[in-house]
Structures are given as C-alpha cells and as structure tokens.
Amino acid sequence: MTGILVLAGTPIGDVSDAPPRLAQELASADVVAAEDTRRLRRLTQALGVQPTGRVVSYFEGNESARTPELVEALVGGARVLLVTDAGMPSVSDPGYRLVAAAVERDVRVTAVPGPSAVLTALALSGLPVDRFCFEGFPPRKAGERLARLREVADERRTLVYFEAPHRLDDTLAAMAEVFGSDRRAAVCRELTKTYEEVRRGGLGELAEWAAEGVRGEITVVVEGAPERGPEALDAAELVRRVRVREEAGERRKEAIAAVASAAGVPKREVFDAVVAAKHAPGEG
Q1: Which residues of the chain have pLDDT under 50?
Q2: By three-state DSSP, how is residue 200 classified?
Q3: Which residue of 38, 52, 247, 262 sits 20 to 30 Å from the alpha carbon of 138, by its own alpha carbon?
C-alpha cells in the first residue's frame, strides 16, 4: 500500500488558530517535512506535541532535491506531513513539486485546512470578494513588476498579492501608476497578530503612507478594474469589423448595425466609414 501526503495549514500569526487536527498529524506522521525546522520546533512546543516521526527540512533551496526522497517514502507506505512557516503549503510556499510528484505516482493527497492570509485579507478588505484572483509576490525588479501589473490592468476581479515590507512602497507606487492612484485597495499587515492593521484607501494614498516605512507580514488587496464603456474605435477598425461579419455571411446592413451597437456609436457613423473605405484609392 502507498502512503498518504498530508498538507497542513499552520497559523499565520496567533498560534491558537491552529486546527486541532494539526497536533494529531504532527504526533502521528512518519515523516514531517517542514519549511523551517526551528519554527516547527517552536510550533510543536506551543501546541504541546512531540513528533514521533522523522523531521526533515523542505524549503525552496532543497525542494527539487528532496522531493524524490519524500515520494519514495510515500510509495513505501509512509504518512508524510508537509508544513510551511505559515498558511497552506504550495500557496506561495514549498509544496507544489511534491504534490505534483505524488499525484503522478498515484499517491493520495489530502489536507488539514488552516488559516489563510489570502482569505483573511479578502474578508477584512471591504472590497468585493465574490470573484478574486491571487497573484502571489510581484517581481522584484521594477521593469518586470510593471509588466506583470500591466497584464492584469483590466482584470475585473479583486486582486490579492503578498509583498515584503521593504518593497511595499515601490509596489504600491507601481500599482498606482498602472491601475490608477484612485483605485481602492487595502494593505493588511500582521494578520491575527498583536499589531494587526488594515489600511484602506486609494493606491496613491497608500503608496505615500508606505513610503514612511512599514513592518511585518503584508497582504495587499486591490479592487478590480471598473467596467469599461463602449470601445472608442477608429474608422478603419469599424470597417474591419464589418468586413469580418460580411465574410462570415452576414448582410452588410445587419453587420453595420451589430458593429455600431457593440461600439456604442450611431449606425450612420459606421455606414459612412464603410462607404468612405469603398471609395478610397485601391479599394474596389
């Protein structure tokens, strides 16, 4: 029989938020793979539990090398518990490679749900939470960060990011540049800890605040892009869209009406553009 891989969520701040099953899994697992074995030791002491299995490190630097070893233990029947410093493994933390490798070997993977900085920040942000997307950490380099932000400039869903405190001011300034300084956002700092703080406001305002210096674990929630009105299309694009519809078998009159409706312009404007294009040099 193959073993089982257990992904266990750990507290993001207050240790009393640890789910009861976490202590049970720590005590019974054959192998405990921890992002930081020293932090694991502090956690087990706080929970009053002593792991009976083998404890190994599993972090970004050795993830690739240690994954095959853990998979072999799983295939051999071991119960492997994976924990990271805070939150759920594989969510901007080590774990994805191990899960993928375990699935490939038909090893069962389950989870002990726990605290989530992403969901906690969303709930506290005061921004729409019915649809959202998690973008992880923005790139460290300024040019790459701007390029990544531009990719989601028109994203309608609420955006969630992690960020290091010493890069927060630059990231918020870049967001204000790309998304607009008035776009609403919330900076959630030290969630569930003693000095928890949620700062809400426009991106420009928050960037100015962060420039003074911010400490702690940071999650940033940004409002999605507002719904855009009809596109502002030039005459050439209106003509192109009409031709596409005509080539698909639509009559010109219906094609003009459909393009005008989609673009939010009068039908006469589209008709005049089509007629002008027909009589332009080189057009038949």
Answers
A1: none
A2: strand
A3: 38
Tokens read off for 199 = 């700062």
Which tokens belong to 119? 């969901």
Determine the Cα–Cα distance for residues 276 and 280; give it in Å rounded to an integer: 6
pLDDT at 262: 79
pLDDT (0 to 100) of residue 272: 92
Q: How far apart are CA 117 and CA 200, in angstroms?
A: 17
Q: Residue 189: helix, strand or coil by DSSP? A: strand
Taking the CB of residue 66, how many other CB atoms lie within 10 A of it? 18
Supply 234's token pair: 């030039």
Going by their DSSP bridges, the two strands 132-134 and 197-202 should be labelled as: unpaired
Q: Which helix (H) or strand (E) holds 188?
A: strand 184-189
pTM for the predicted model, two decimal places: 0.77
Query: How does DSSP classify residue 127?
Result: S
> What order do you get walking across the sheet with 132-134 strand by strand?
132-134, 158-163, 218-222, 184-189, 197-202
